[in-house]
Specification:
alpha/beta; eight-stranded parallel β-sheet; 8 strands; 14% strand
């Protein structure tokens, strides 16, 4: 993921402080009490990483079997694979079967809306591709988690009526989070308020993206008592900083959980994905320690510390 990427020599100047909660968050959580058993999902955006061979995938694993191995380590995936084309039902059934046969927990796929809908049609006259998309992902069955609709950088507040109209015509029971990127959604107070009030009214979530170069996307607005966080780490050389950022998220989530947060979807990205399982494992450790999340730790083939040491030698 290159979104929000900052040159390595500029990272020291980035303020990674998590902002205060937004106005909509207070309204969403007002009067809520802690739920008995909140849900926690941690995953990556892709399973097809050759760099994970001999790390979490056995050395001779074929690429066609990477998903079989991925589901043994994680309980979810932010599924970007369906963004590039509308998936066919047969492919979704194939992926579901891999989860059925290999997952060690209640695994969920969180599929991204296809770009035909979001970026090419820009939500207009998109009924046919939307119906095809929804029919296909329905094949995930019990393995279907919330979907997320990512809008392009040029989809700004002037399109809010288009967005609202599109969301109103989606199935009411479709779990959905929306990610916006145009800077005016965050810099224009009126546009910001209208967006998050609308999402709350329609009971749709708002994706929070924590990326080094786009701190405005860290809006801290909850429109439903669930969160979908896309965390973009900065790689092995900045691991201590990334771990500290995870610690800060744990602190903030503790506050939200105390006020009725029901579900957490936390997806790890890095500009270089080779060490993402290490970052994900640290996140799992902290969730288990502070929230009693009950997520199985990642089973590394080689000790992560040794992997880091070996890479430092080259």
């Amino acid at each position: 993921m290159d979104f929000g990427k900052v040159p390595a020599n500029e990272l020291a100047s980035v303020d990674f402080t998590i902002p205060a909660d937004g106005k909509q968050t207070a309204l969403t959580l007002e009067g809520h009490k802690p739920v008995k058993d909140p849900s926690f999902y941690i995953g990556c955006a892709k399973w097809g990483r050759k760099e994970w061979l001999n790390m979490i995938y056995p050395p001779k694993t074929k690429e066609a079997d990477f998903l079989d191995e991925y589901v043994k380590h994680f309980n979810s995936i932010e599924l970007n694979a369906v963004f590039y084309s509308i998936p066919n039902a047969e492919l979704i059934r194939k992926w579901r079967l891999k989860a059925e046969e290999n997952a060690n927990s209640n695994f969920v796929f969180c599929p991204k809306f296809s770009r035909t809908i979001s970026h090419i049609k820009r939500l207009k006259d998109a009924e046919v591709p939307t119906d095809l998309y929804l029919a296909s992902i329905h094949e995930f069955g019990k393995f279907l988690g919330p979907c997320f609709l990512q809008l392009g950088d040029n989809f700004g507040p002037k399109n809010i009526d288009v967005l609202e109209n599109y969301l109103k015509h989606l199935p009411v029971d479709l779990e959905l989070f929306v990610e916006v990127r145009h800077e005016d959604w965050f810099s224009d107070d009126t546009a910001r308020t209208k967006l998050f009030e609308m999402l709350a009214r329609l009971k749709k979530g708002a994706v929070i993206t924590d990326a080094s170069g786009r701190r405005d996307c860290l809006h801290m607005e909850l429109t439903i008592p669930e969160i979908f966080i896309r965390f973009v780490g900065n790689g092995q050389e900045h691991q201590a900083s990334d771990f500290a950022r995870i610690d800060d998220w744990v602190t903030r989530m503790k506050s939200w959980l105390d006020h009725g947060l029901k579900s957490v979807y936390f997806f790890l990205h890095q500009h270089d994905e080779k060490d993402t399982p290490i970052l994900a494992d640290y996140t799992i450790q902290q969730f288990n320690k502070h929230f009693n999340a009950g997520i199985a730790p990642i089973k590394f083939i080689n000790d992560p510390k040794e992997i880091t040491k070996q890479r430092e030698l080259f």
